[in-house]
Amino acid sequence: MSEREPPRQRLRAGLAALSLDVADATIERLLAYVDLLLRWNATYNLTAVRDPAEMVTRHLLDSLAVLPHVRGTRLADLGSGAGLPGIPLALCHRFDAVVLIDSNGKKARFLREAVRQLGLAAVTVAQGRVETVRGEFDCITARAFATLADMLAWGGHLLGPDGRWLALKGRIPHDEIAALPAGFEVESVQRLDVPGLDAERHLVTIRRSARAADAGNPP
Prior knowledge:
The protein is an alpha/beta fold. The protein contains 8 helices and 7 strands; from the N terminus they run H-H-H-E-H-E-H-E-E-H-E-H-E-E-H.
């Protein structure tokens, strides 16, 4: 049995549990991303997870659990780090443009190499603070990045009028939801069941408030 077979089996089982139909070629690209992450992790310390099978659960499946909630063709991934969830989503969803945003130079270098090796032509890397990035996106993802208020203060300008912000959280952040800044509202809070992960996961979906959206679209 090859070294890649246990992660492959775990990935296939996890995708089936999530009811995600992913092509064989895409599964191999996801595993190639794990291989690349393992190699770079030895020097760059991109993640505390060292076992490839655990990377499948904690990184790939944890990221892809939000795939059914992704909308549109333009995605920004804030505080992308090692490319999570941006790279797994870009491998499994057809986007016109994906921007991976991170201020850390080492992580940005890894992201550029991952984009190059995985042939992700629609994906670019923005190294710098979220506040300095420009553009308008249908979907914004953020995984363990900051509080909801901080995320929206720094990157709220990137969310399109009809866009959705997908904030990946552990437990339901009731205090953060109560402190949501003006101009935004929570559309839904959903539990995510990540196969093989013994931890709580919730997806907080945020949109511009109706008043804010109307203000941006005068009659």
